[in-house]
C-alpha cells in the first residue's frame, strides 16, 4: 500500500503542490499590481480584480485537496478519540465513507455545473465552466486520497494484532 501511496503522491499531489505555489505567486502579484495602480498611480485596472478572484478560487480548491492529503483539515475528533481501539477504527472508516459520499456529490454537481454553465467573466471573457472545472478536479483529488485512506483503514481494522 505504501508503494501506491507514493505513486499517487508523485502523479497527482506533487504537481498540485507546485501548481498551488505558482498560483499563490501569481495571485499575490496580481493583487500587488492592483494596489499599486489603484492607490499609488490612481489608475485602477478592472481585470486584476477579476483575475485575482479566479486565481483565488482555483488556489483554494487545490489547497483544500492538499490539506486533506496532509491531514491538515480542521475536525472535531474528541468523540472518535474517546472510543476504544476497534470501535475507533470503525468510526474512522465511517467518517471516511461520509467524506467519500460528500465528495462524490460535489464531483457530480461540479460536472453538471461545468456542462451547463454558459456565462463568461465580464472583463477577461473567461468561460466560467473553465473556471469551475476546478470543483470536480479537486473533488477527484479528495476522492483518490479518501479511497487510499479507506483501504488502509479497512486493512488496519482486520489486521491481526499480537498480544
Walkthrough of the structure:
The protein is mainly α. It has one domain (2-158). The protein is built from 6 helices and no strands. Helix 1 (2-40) packs antiparallel against helix 2 (46-69), helix 2 packs parallel to helix 6 and helix 4 runs antiparallel to helix 6. It is elongated and about 70 Å long. The chain starts with a helix and ends in a 5-residue tail after the last helix. The mean pLDDT is 91.
Task: Domain count, please report it.
Answer: 1
Helix/strand-derived class?
mainly alpha
Radius of gyration, Cα only, in angstroms? 20 Å
Distance between the termini: 24 Å
How would a crystallographer describe the biggest sheet?
A: none
Give the percentage of residues in beta strands: under 5%
The gross shape turns out to be elongated
- Unreliable stretches: none
Order of helices and strands: HHHHHH
Mean pLDDT: 91
Total beta strands: 0
Output the number of helix runs: 6
Helical percentage: over 70%
How are the secondary structure elements laid out?
Layout lengths: L1 H39 L5 H24 L8 H5 L2 H32 L11 H4 L2 H25 L5
Helix pairs in contact: 1-2, 1-6, 2-6, 4-6
Summary of the model, kept short:
This protein is mostly helical.
Name its key features.
163 residues, mainly alpha, 6 helices, 0% strand, elongated
Amino acid at each position: 500500500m505504501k508503494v501506491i501511496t507514493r505513486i499517487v503522491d508523485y502523479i497527482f499531489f506533487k504537481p498540485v503542490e507546485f501548481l498551488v505555489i505558482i498560483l499563490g505567486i501569481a495571485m499575490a502579484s496580481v493583487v500587488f499590481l492592483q494596489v499599486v495602480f489603484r492607490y499609488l498611480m490612481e489608475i485602477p485596472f478592472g481585470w486584476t480584480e477579476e483575475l485575482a478572484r479566479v486565481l483565488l478560487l482555483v488556489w483554494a480548491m487545490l489547497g483544500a485537496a492538499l490539506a486533506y492529503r496532509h491531514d491538515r483539515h480542521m475536525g472535531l475528533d474528541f468523540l472518535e478519540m474517546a472510543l476504544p481501539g476497534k470501535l475507533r477504527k470503525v468510526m474512522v472508516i465511517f467518517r471516511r465513507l461520509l467524506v467519500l459520499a460528500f465528495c462524490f456529490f460535489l464531483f457530480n454537481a461540479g460536472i453538471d455545473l461545468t456542462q451547463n454553465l454558459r456565462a463568461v467573466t465580464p472583463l477577461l471573457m473567461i468561460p466560467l465552466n473553465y473556471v469551475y472545472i476546478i470543483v470536480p478536479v479537486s473533488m477527484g483529488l479528495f476522492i483518490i486520497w479518501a479511497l487510499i485512506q479507506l483501504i488502509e483503514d479497512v486493512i488496519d481494522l482486520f489486521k491481526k494484532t499480537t498480544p
